[in-house]
Design a protein that fits this description.
By secondary structure, the chain is α/β, with parallel strands linked by helices. The protein has one domain: TIM Barrel (Alpha-Beta Barrel). It has ten helices and nine strands. The strands form two sheets. Strands 1, 2, 3, 7, 8 and 9 form a six-stranded parallel sheet that branches. A three-stranded parallel sheet has the order 4-5-6, covered by helices on one side.
């Protein structure tokens, strides 16, 4: 069975939980995340108006309403990272919350907004932005973390089906835990050497990843839905294609090259009935929200053109999985 091309967007919804190990909550950070919170409803309005299906992989701690809920709702066993700086719990122990209903670490109203918007899937980014390749933590600790993520989602009537590993630290050994807890798809990294998952990256990998956003270091490997392996069972591994990098001031050439790369890749995928998976973090729009949103509108407009011309489909990670399993 041949499928038309598929366009997938997945978003790593974290707020400060995704940056705690290298960002203190100073005035600049607060402005950054306030902009992030303000832009999310605008994104949802755009997606709903243009029938764009999106997977929001949300950190489970964002479901909490306040510090009391967070304190009383910890997993039965916390991760024992060798490096305590990568533990969300250790960060809070050291720095504390920004008030009882800290808007940079709790976002239940935004979760509700996403849930109520048509064709938006809420997936998981683990409960505590859990690093699955860090030394010291264990598979059982990951299970406790993911169980808590499923529990807080279920309290809102959400059944988690899709998972994105924080920092893309894809751990093959943990897929069985995902399957046991009802996860049917996970996002994997592009099949290119400089995107290989790791706890840290060499200078050369970082250089190639950054440069690849603007120049064709090597063509992307076009993947069709038929190429995604379902023989190994659940969860299915849905490879990412492209990280959207935010608009930056003073870089007109880089901004133009980046957008040209994305739009050309989308066109090639649509023409070849292939699968194209773009991802970013909502907080990537935090510094220049107006300009970043304008680029998002360009991407959506180009998708609509390709949908009309080639039948390009917009699907969430879960919708892709269901389509493949029906086959």
């Amino acid at each position: 069975m041949a499928y038309p091309g598929v366009f997938c967007i997945s978003l790593d919804f974290e707020l400060h939980w995704g940056c705690f190990e290298n960002m203190l909550m100073d005035e600049n950070a607060q402005r950054y995340f306030n902009n992030t919170r303000d832009i999310i409803p605008k994104k949802l309005e755009l997606f709903a108006g243009q029938d764009i299906h999106v997977t929001w992989a949300a950190v489970g701690m964002l479901f909490r309403h306040n510090r009391k809920e967070w304190e009383e709702g910890k997993p039965a066993e916390l991760p024992t990272f060798d490096n305590p700086a990568v533990s969300a719990y250790e960060w809070i122990n050291r720095h504390g919350f920004m008030g009882e209903e800290d808007p940079y670490h709790f976002a239940p109203t935004l979760v509700d907004k996403i849930k109520s918007t048509p064709n938006q899937e809420i997936g998981t980014h683990t409960y505590a932005h859990y690093f699955c390749l860090e030394k010291g933590q264990t598979k059982d600790q990951f299970r406790y973390d993911l169980e808590m993520a499923c529990r807080v989602a279920a309290e809102k009537g959400i059944s988690l089906k899709s998972l994105v590993f924080p920092r893309n630290q894809f751990n093959q050994e943990y897929l069985s835990v995902c399957r046991d807890l009802g996860i049917t798809s996970v996002r994997s990294s592009p099949d290119i050497w400089y995107w290989a998952p790791a706890t840290g990256s060499s200078f050369m990998k970082k250089l190639f990843r950054a440069g690849d956003a603007y120049l064709k270091f090597q063509p992307i490997k076009m993947v069709s839905l038929e190429d995604i392996n379902i023989s190994n069972g659940l969860p299915l591994q849905l490879p990412a294609t492209r990280l959207y990098r935010p608009w930056k001031p003073g870089q007109p050439v880089q901004n133009k090259l980046k957008m040209r790369r994305i739009l050309n890749e989308m066109t090639e995928a649509a023409r070849k009935n292939a699968y194209y998976h773009i991802w970013w973090h909502p907080h990537n729009f935090g510094n220049n929200p107006k300009e970043c949103f304008s680029e998002l509108e360009q991407i959506v407009a180009h998708f609509n053109k390709l949908r009309s011309q080639y039948g390009f489909m917009s699907l969430t990670m879960n919708e892709i999985t269901e389509k493949l399993l029906k086959k």
